[in-house]
TrEMBL record:
The keyword Zinc applies. Gene3D superfamilies: 2.60.120.920, Classic Zinc Finger, Zinc/RING finger domain, C3HC4 (zinc finger). This is Tripartite motif-containing 10. Residues 285-479 form the B30.2/SPRY domain. Residues 93-134 form the B box-type domain. Belongs to the TRIM/RBCC family. Coiled coil: none annotated.
Amino acid sequence: MASASVASLADEVNCPICQGTLREPVTIDCGHNFCRCCLTRYCEIPGSESEESLTCPLCKEPFRPGTFRPNWQLANVVENIERLQLASTRGLEAEDACPEHGEKVYFFCEDDEAQLCVVCREAGLHGAHTVRFLEDAAGPYREQIQKCLMCLRKEREEIQEVQSRENKRIQVLLTQVATKRQQVVSQFARLSQFLEEQQSFLLAQLDRLDGDILKQQEEFDSLVTGEIRRFSTLIEELEEKNERPAKELLTVRCETRKCRKPEAVSPELGQRIRDFSQQALPLQQAMKAFLEMLCFELDYEPAHISLDPHTSHPKLLLSEDHQRARFSHKWQNSPDTPQRFDRATCVLARSGFTGGRHTWVVNVDLAHGGSCTVGVLREDVRRKGELRMRPEEGVWALRLAWGFVSALGSFPTRLALEEQPRKVRVSLDYEVGWVTFANAVTQEHIYTFTASFTQEVFPLFGLWGRGSKGPVSLLWAQGWNQALWT
């Protein structure tokens, strides 16, 4: 910093004509400074004999040669700057010099870890020591630095890879959120239309009930009015007879008539009013179906699972439609192929996944003592010999047994659930790297694995114990949501 400041000051005291440090600086009428000799030569340039034609080399203001004024203060400043430059140069040379002898350092004593000049080396104090040239002595340190640099560069590359991978995950998640937003808007638009149609239908039903009630009210009023009129006539006749003499009264016969008691609302109409709430049942069912479908569309695509008999362990019995597996103690006559499990009683789905978001449901029906495993398996996992079910080996799975559920991580973790799941929903998000398990009946979350998938993964099913069986079904049937709104 000091040397840079000195250099900056030196630039300020340069002569505009020769571009060198000012020598015997003089000032002219305009205030600019020049070397005396430089300005004298400038005035002697051919064509400038007239004093009126002389102008400042910088600002072009006219000046007269006889007006040169020595600038002694500036001369002192120039002298001081030159001293500072000289001191700075000597300081830089002193940094590479031996502090004891002032000679340049060329050697390094490895025993004393000291830098030596020629005089130090010849003095005898380091005669029995290992003395090397500075560059040779610095070689091992340079190698060590290179190794550290390699490690640091490797770690930086790993961090950059993590950053790239996580940025891709973020982009995938942002895309998923945008898709979910579109699905929500679309589904609620359809729901709004459906609700308007249902409202119109129910209001029309209520309008018909209103009309029928008013019609029966008119009929009731007409009937009651007639009966009142009839009874009023009878009452008048009896009152007239009651006023007659006793002789005539004894010859009068009195007739009694029964009153008809009409109903304002017929039993059929009353039943229709009471049953009106049944008209809203389809709406209730449709709302439930809408919520289920919305959750489905905001979740994952249904995977069409079919068990692969070429991978099935010989103790597993598969149904004809390859949708069910059952454990049997009797070995099947199955060819021993590289794809087939020979020790783990497992079977894979026929198709795997290399991307996307997928979900499927496994119906679990375990007898006492039986257990099963559901999850996903990486393509390159060996199917011969012992199958180590943990993420490091390429398996992300749950184990369900009689009375407990465990997540098969690096160390199996027993999970505390509200109830033993009979239907397990498995959801795979390949790009984000999530394998999620949930109770397909109660929607209770069971466990989520986080991974980084680079190969094809397959749905995995394993069964142990007599009576264990694991029918596989799709989460949603095809065409289900189309039937809801049409």
